[in-house]
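As described in the Methods, two query proteins were run sequentially through the folding procedure within a single session, without resetting any intermediate state between them. The first query and its resulting structure tokens are shown here.
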Amino acid sequence: MKNILIIDDSMFQRKMLTDALIEMGYEVSQAENGAKGIEIFKELKPDCVVTDLLMPDMSGQEVIKKIKEITPNQKMLVISADIQLSIKNECIALGIAGFLNKPFNKVELKNILENLLG
């Protein structure tokens, strides 16, 4: 079973995403901030990381950079309320595999993950 790590400061968003991913057949781990997410990432080496961008302690962009330093080919998605094209392009340049806006669409999420993880 593929493991997905969710990094998001919103408990509500983590719950919604976790429920959707479990329903899709994934094993899910959660972190409430970037620092905790990086700790869990180092321990678990998940198949995919899904991160928010707007978090208080460390931005999603910082999380992406740090995880990519550890594992350059890590598969990562962003799910964020930040819909600015410049931010989306910045994340793509950092090497993310997909970008979804909040509230996320389950079908879109499932399609991206199936293409990404097989």
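Immediately afterward, the second query was submitted; its sequence and tokens are:
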Amino acid sequence: MTGPVDERAFELVTLASGARAVKHRGHGEVMHPGVGPWREANHLYVDQSGLAVRLTEPGPPLVLLDAGLGAATNAVAALTCARALGPAQQRELHVWSLETTLAPVRLALEDAAGFPFLQPFAAAVQQLLRDDVVHLPRATWRLVVGDMAEAWRRADLPAAHVVFFDPFSPAANPQLWTPAALRLLRARCDDGAEGCALYTYSASTPTRVSFLLGGFFVGAGVSVGTRRETTVAATRPGLLRAPLGERWMARWERSSARAPHGQPLTDEVERALRDHPQFHAGTGQPTFNRLAT
């Protein structure tokens, strides 16, 4: 979402699983539906990204871009993972959380019984909301409030090694899922030896086309709840465990939903997808600037 946000637009709900979650009253979407916020945050984002292992390997600070603070579940799951490592943590964790409204996290903090996983970090969250930064042992957590795509243009935003991409869906928040927006995000990803991998819940064909046209290599992610697959996008194919290949391309050719989010299916778009180096080994890195609209 962009622009002013009415904080009364959110409410707390109880899922069929018994977990508490935040719902947007306007479009009706629930944050982390199905298995609930904590299980999804850990399985889809923290565990799948191998965060614990990466933090035990010596190196410079690991930069995590938390694209969609929401109720702070994903960020707190990452910080909980780091804290649990204790002396085994060999590198600092730097979390940058981006969000347009702080209503969801404020609601979650008020429901201690429904969001118990936030409580060990309640003071840190309150400080983050007040000061936009909080320093923890071997971790720093920063907050940027405002238009998320504009935040990706910030000069002080460091190159990310991991991205938890968790905004509302393309139906409710279409502007963040377009190839043009994702090219901005791709520009904030580390292109060094470590590279960057992004994790998101959507596995739709338009979503994967958008990430491919946005400059990423794309693969299938883990199953979560009722989702048979999620999506992983990366700066290079070697970071993908299950990269999309010929079978996916054949399904795309037959699909009735072949266009990316926010763009018509033109000959140029089709050509760019077919020419993506993911599907042509040895052709080098892609050039996507010609699809700037």
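Confidence is low (pLDDT under 50) at residues 283-293. We note this only descriptively and draw no conclusion about the first query from it.
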